[in-house]
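Worked Example 4.2. Consider the chain below.
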Amino acid sequence: MLLKATNLSKTFKRGSVQFLAVEDASISLSENSFTFIVGRSGSGKTTLLNLLSGLLNPTTGEVVFEDRNIFNMNDKDKSFYRNAEIGFVPQVLGTLPNLTVLDNVRLPFFMFKRDGNDDDRALSLLDMMGILHLKDEMPSSLSGGEEKRMLIARSLMNAPRLLIADEPTSNLDSETTKEVMEGIKRVNRQGVSCLIVTHDESIIEKNADVYRMENGKITHL
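Applying the procedure from the previous section yields the following structure tokens:
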């Protein structure tokens, strides 16, 4: 098992009122799996992703990546986990506007000291995503689909074991949605487990593992 979350809950406080954004959620991801979490906006999907990636600490529950509970890691180890083991594609585009497409993709490589050729890796990823010809462009010149594919390439810069994408096809037309999903499928064929959160059930792949989230609770379909 690559990742296993057990009985995750996350409580937030709004004024004097507490509410459960995620309630008793459990999910398992195996090696080289393709998994979807579907649900409407506000159902708790993004909060769950932030828990799985270690960006948020749960109120209760645990997340075990291989044999390590990520919430028992110190801050440095948890940061390395997010940088090296997980590739995260955010729902809100997170490009750096003053860097070229190539430099945006290379950026995660420099968060921790590591060996390897960052240029070769970044160029290879841009080629895999079909946007190598845009390497010297600035993000402002990209279409929505091109920018999503750039973010997917960036998330793979450090060869993570798991790709997590939060609404990767939101606000895209049908043809661009197809291009982005083809890119993610290529990633999965290379042995990377993929976890996709979406409200668009039309993009769910046949034979994929599917969970549904509603009112903070998750159900395995």
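Residues 144 and 171 are 8 Å apart (CA to CA). The mean pLDDT is 90. Compare this with Example 4.1 before moving on.
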